[in-house]
Amino acid sequence: MSVSNPTLITFVIYIAAMVLIGFMAYRSTNNLSDYILGGRSLGSVVTALSAGASDMSGWLLMGLPGAIYMSGLSESWIAIGLIVGAYLNWLFVAGRLRVQTEHNGDALTLPDYFSSRFEDKSGLLRIISAVVILVFFTIYCASGIVAGARLFESTFGMSYETALWAGAAATIAYTFVGGFLAVSWTDTVQATLMIFALILTPIIVLLATGGVDTTFLAIEAKNPDNFNMLKNTTFIGIISLMGWGLGYFGQPHILARFMAADSVKSIAKARRISMTWMILCLGGTVAVGFFGIAYFSAHPEVAGPVNENHERVFIELAKLLFNPWIAGVLLSAILAAVMSTLSCQLLVCSSALTEDFYKTFLRKNASQVELVWVGRLMVLLVALIAIAMAANPENRVLGLVSYAWAGFGAAFGPVVLISVIWKGMTRNGALAGILVGAITVIVWKHFELLGLYEIIPGFIFASLAIYFVSKMGAPTAGMVERFDAAEKDYNLNK
């Protein structure tokens, strides 16, 4: 690995810029609200792009293009499901959650919101939801660290152990120092880099393969079924892929962006920006994998690395078709996707430990400075546990991402969605929803029933549990009063 390697230099400049943003955010971080939610100061552009970037991990530039390259357009159902789910989340949850968290004790985290919204004096809701977050997100963080390590390993020929620390160090540094503002500002830069890479790359691949007609003929010659969206699919298979969209309602790192918006007025504009970004990125991702079929059919002599690991299709196209400096920028987009998601997950874990355990149960009267530093130490602690989990490259951590997504989607999704649209929901209903959703996912995954993605039954059963258990009791007058005040605030300002 040469120091003059343009890709290495590009990576170093990019990482240095992210850490610099972290130190800039440090100067604006004065209390726990600043560290966890940026003082609820995010404008529409930052809200939109940070929500998108925190959602789309390395899967966007590695997993999905690889799946399209191997199987054709039949793998694109998941992208359709994600777009629909994200839009509905922006439409029904974003603005309402922003005002509901403010009216319910100015809640900084999801467990904090559940506890205040349902007047849970026992602390049971807070503890159970914080534990769910810590378990699933530590696994999520480990998967992000593995993805970053794989990128450094394949790009620079590093050993896996060295790549593990190289990939994680910068993300830990700017999250540790700058908290939520650093994460959101860097997400905005990273989202810009990702969309640049995913618009430019398919255009250049298309030109390299002789234009649209030639490319489509080459793809058809390879296998006519590449164009068939129903190839090797079943009704349950399509529903399972589309079902990924249900996960959005319960992802703490995405919901935190809604809670941090400067006002409800910003949400509508943020929704339009975020959905445009998402559609262009997912369209570009599908195009990279699809056009890659034509390119590597025409150039079998360079197809070895992609045939060995189809998830390398974007990496190999960037290396083959671009000047090394431009390739370095494009490959930095993969690092951006990994870092943006990992940093959000680290911060959500830190928030749960600091706000929902340390402040609530150990140090109720802790100063703001103390809480910020505890938050920073928790980022470090979670990161070290995640690195330890990722240390063995044989660990199938990445395979657990769909499990974690389903876990959050089923345990939190119905509770969040119903809590912002139905004032009749009770504390016992919320508790039943979280437990039924999480247990259904675990049981369904274990027995692999019907071949159906576990988030779908989990979401349905949790929603039914919330409704029927809530109907057995009634919300308190205070809960109804706060709900009505928040709903009125939302309708006046949306």
Automatic annotation (TrEMBL):
Membrane topology term: Multi-pass membrane protein
Localization annotation: Cell inner membrane; Cell membrane
Transmembrane segments: 6-26, 76-94, 124-152, 164-183, 195-219, 234-256, 277-298, 325-350, 371-391, 403-422, 429-444, 450-469
Keyword field: Amino-acid transport, Cell inner membrane, Cell membrane, Ion transport, Membrane, Sodium, Sodium transport, Symport, Transmembrane, Transmembrane helix, Transport
GO-annotated molecular function: L-proline transmembrane transporter activity; proline:sodium symporter activity; sodium ion binding
Keyword Metal-binding in record: no
GO biological process: proline transport
Cellular compartments per GO CC: plasma membrane
Reactions the enzyme catalyzes: L-proline(in) + Na(+)(in) = L-proline(out) + Na(+)(out)
A Pfam entry, by short name: SSF
Protein name: Sodium/proline symporter
Organism the protein comes from: Pseudomonas kairouanensis
